[in-house]
Amino acid sequence: MNHPANCIFCKIAAGTVPSRKVYEDDELFAFHDLHPWAPVHFLLIPKAHIPSMAQVGLEHAALLGRMMVLAPQLALEQGCKPYPEGGFRLVSNTGAEGGQEVHHLHFHVIGGPRPWLKG
Ligand code: 5GP
Ligand code: ZN
């Protein structure tokens, strides 16, 4: 697993690596995925370096709760149509068999009119 000092998403959250920002507050950061699968595809991350959902504990419950509340709000702001006709997909790839490539916890928020490139 990568150390936070070498973590691309820590650098994006800190602003030392550029990204197309969607949202930022004290604890959370969201930015457009470099290789979107769909008309809306952004990543929502905690600023704190948590490697994946596998490391989440009760001490993270409030932070994760905030991410779950924010994701649908940002999805609408980014152009996903409202539920139930519109909606979005919320994905957190975890570990090698889960398809995780960047080892800093992130939620993919994917949506918009179909067809999508994947999924
Ligand atoms: P994972 O497979 O770990 O769930 O997905 C990582 C995602 O991060 C991929 O969809 C990939 O396109 C995106 N990604 C990787 N590096 C960067 C980057 O430097 N900037 C941005 N904006 N997205 C990235
Ligand atoms: Zn990190």
Would you write up a description of this structure?
With 119 residues, the protein is of the alpha+beta class. It has helices spanning 8-14, 61-77; strands at 21-24, 28-32, 40-46, 88-91, 107-111. A 5-stranded antiparallel beta sheet has the order 1-2-3-5-4, with helices on one face. It is globular, with a radius of gyration of 14 Å. The site of zinc ion has 6 residues, from helix 1.
Task: Please tag this protein with its features.
119 residues; alpha+beta; HIT family, subunit A; 5-stranded antiparallel β-sheet; 2 helices; 21% strand; binds guanosine-5'-monophosphate; binds zinc ion
Please write the string of helix (H) and strand (E) elements: HEEEHEE
Detail the poorly predicted runs: none
**Main sheet, how many strands, which sense, barrel?**
5 strands, antiparallel
**First CA to last CA: what distance?**
27 Å
- The residue-averaged pLDDT reads 97
Secondary structural class: alpha+beta
For the record, the count of structural domains works out to: 1
Number of DSSP strand runs: 5
Globular, elongated, flat, extended or rod-shaped: what is the shape? globular
* H/I helix tally: 2
Write the CATH architecture name. Answer: 2-Layer Sandwich
Bound molecules: guanosine-5'-monophosphate, zinc ion
Strand content: 15-25%
Helix fraction, binned, reads 10-25%
Radius of gyration: 14 Å
